[in-house]
Amino acid sequence: MSPPPPLTAAADLAPQLAAAGWAVLDAAALRAVAAATAQPGATGPAGASRSWAEWAPLWDDLPPDRYLRDGGRYRRRRHGSFVVEGESCQPVAHRAHWQPVEYNALHGGIERWFEPLPASLVADPAWAQLLRAGAGIAALLRGPARWFVEAHMFRIDTTDGIGRPTPEGAHRDGVDLVAVVLVGRRGVKGGETRVFDARGPQGVRFTLHEPWSVLLLDDERVIHETTPIQPAEAVAAGAGSRDTLVLTYRRGAFQGPQIATPQTTP
Fold it and tell me: What is the pLDDT of residue 264?
């Protein structure tokens, strides 16, 4: 059986990331980090927690991923892009998700146009607060910067009898920080997280279970993957699912065939 995640207290986040290149925060620690970056009068920790819980039904309305090259039907997703700098958090015009083949051998090198994030999510003040919290964590790794953020809502289900959270295998994403937030899991087994040092054999494995706990990764130092999920006993095929919110932070620009700095929308 996979062990539980080794948790890091919010106060110990910086030294943990510096030492290991990764950390896991439980929901309470993530709320504390988000509260530390909140603007005056913005949603507090308790309010943020309520907002996060209220977002969960949005994962029931994710369209299928039309780009899966393994022929699977197990992944649904939406995508959005933002620029975060200081207290500013601005959405950018809807754009394709693109990765080079060096980071994604299965789906790299192509523009993937996913449906946009729900407008109600983007308009929620707690959303900007969460993105600013991630920028603060990225700054622990690289210092203050203008952060180009991509947000991915994923649902992996067991429609095919098995669902693959990372069909590309163990990988890096070509960014500075990756934050994998578990939104929920229902009626599945598997889905073990594995994190490895990019320069050696050292690694850890564990399974995230708590909603709104988060895995944080220094993408330059570690590679990661999540093992397939299957229906739990007495659960019909297709009934189980694992929902995540993946946020990536990158300095300089978004990844793209032509790297350019986009204009933010009003």
Answer: 46
